[in-house]
Amino acid sequence: MSADDVTGASTAAFAGQDSADSDEALVDRARARDGSAFELLMRRHNQRVYRAARAVLRDEREVEDVMQQAYINAYTHLHQFEERSQFSTWLTRIVLNEAFGRRQKVAVESRVIVAAGADEPAGEFMSSLTSPQPGPEHQAYAQELRHVLEEAVDALPEAYRTVFMLRDIEGLSTAETGDGLGLGEEAVKTRLHRARAMIRRTVSSRIGEPAAGAFQFQAPRCDRVVAFVLDAISRR
Fold first, then answer.
1. Domain shared by 175 and 92, yes or no
2. What are the pLDDT digits (tens) for 66-109?
């Protein structure tokens, strides 16, 4: 078993502790300065937080920085979480705000102008995904196609990439996506439709695994983000 496997196993074991506790119960404990409760919240939601940040930023170092700051912001403002929405939705809004702020800062500093891509003919994307026949080369093939999908998503204009990542990669509902991005549901549906069409010809005939297999936030990185945030909030 590799070191990553060991770390992944320990992370999964930790995430399984107190699994019956709701997010709201863990938030209550975290408000009372229970660091283990906030750690569990981070590990429970790290995949979504990563994908939300990754939808806006392409630089992996920037993504981790944004994740860490977003968690610190969330911990600092836990008293403002009023449970009118799910904790995951509230947390997604925080990380998106942080990511957009970071992207704007980087854009100003570097004077980078990202050209928007042209619309492609309309068409369903997810329904076109097919799985190859099992075989000895399946794992390598699937890994290669995940990279193809990630590159295709990265090439999308930001307005479409963020919606695609949150809806088709992370699996948020239309309402949750709109809530996180400040969009109406019809706008979300329109952007998702266009995003799928833009990447259809690039990946639809080659994809081997469901889109949910892309943009994985692996255990070692999870541990690194969690350790950084726990250290930062312990100093407060």
1. no
2. 999 999 999 999 999 987 889 999 999 999 999 998 887 765 55
- HEC readout, 185-219: HHHHHHHHHHHHHHHHHHHCCCCCCCHHHCCCCCH
pTM for this prediction: 0.65
DSSP string, 80-119: G--SSS-HHHHHHHHHHHHHHHHHHHHHHHHT--PPPPPP
CATH at residue 28: 1.10.1740.10
207 and 149 in contact (C-beta within 8 Å)?
yes
The encoded tokens of residue 198 equal: 């833009």
Q: Each residue of 193-211: pLDDT tens digit?
A: 999 888 876 666 555 445 5
Closest CA to 205 of 150, 145, 165: 145
204 φψ region: left (φ > 0), alpha (ψ -120 to 50), beta (else)? alpha
Instruction: Show the domain range for 180.
Output: 126-213
